């Protein structure tokens, strides 16, 4: 929703008004139509089975080398689209230590992994293509709460400065695990959705 503009929002109609989801479910039970309420989807609803199997079916994947943080080649990946920052499972490298995906280098088709989970934690990110739902930005620095993934609670942060036409430097009060380029970061103040952008 952070990409919505005021021009779009002024034409939106909310058919259930101010009712919460739980209130709507209670009304559905009361009127005997609860069987029409579908189970909720928190994932990609059209995929049955594993994500990797779906991607393997529809993408042309190019295998390549896996390197550890010292630059040593330790394995072979099956195609970079099958991996995400912070991932532990399905890496398939020999040894007893757990490895985590640290970086996907598409230019060289290499996967960089670490066996130190602390390497995944960072406090800063740059957000590109930022949209402000109000139509205008706020005075900086700006204290906010920010989310870098759907199921994560919003975390204390601040928008430090503008670093490009629509790019901003965000700094969290505590380091966050697996900040992932290409994913969205969304800004809040209290209940208000201020906007968001794409992690660079």
Describe it.
This protein is mainly β. It has 2 domains: 51-115, SH3 type barrels; 120-199, Elongation Factor Tu (Ef-tu), domain 3, CATH 2.40.30. The chain has 3 helices and 10 strands. The chain has helices at residues 6-9, 21-30, 51-58, and strands at residues 64-68, 73-77, 100-105, 110-114, 121-132, 142-147, 155-162, 168-177, 184-189, 192-199. The protein has a 6-stranded antiparallel beta barrel. Strands 2-1-4-3 form a 4-stranded mixed beta sheet, with no helix packed on it. It is globular and about 60 Å long. The two termini are 19 Å apart. The mean pLDDT is 92.
Tally of alpha and pi helices = 3
In total, the number of strands is 10
Mind describing the biggest β-sheet?
A: 6 strands, antiparallel, barrel
Round the mean pLDDT to the nearest integer and report it.
92
| End-to-end CA span | 19 Å
- Oligomer category: single chain
CATH C-level name of the largest domain: Mainly Beta
Q: Please tell me how large the radius of gyration is.
A: 21 Å
Q: Quickly give the CATH architecture of the largest domain.
A: Beta Barrel
Q: Which residue ranges are poorly predicted, with pLDDT under 50 across at least 5 consecutive positions?
A: none
CATH fold node name of the largest domain: Elongation Factor Tu (Ef-tu), domain 3
In which order are the strands of the major sheet placed?
5-8-7-6-9-10
For the record, the count of structural domains works out to 2
Backbone shape: globular
Give the SSE order as H and E letters.
Answer: HHHEEEEEEEEEE
* Full CATH superfamily name of the largest domain: Translation factors
Structural class: mainly beta
Our estimate of the beta-strand percent is: 35-45%
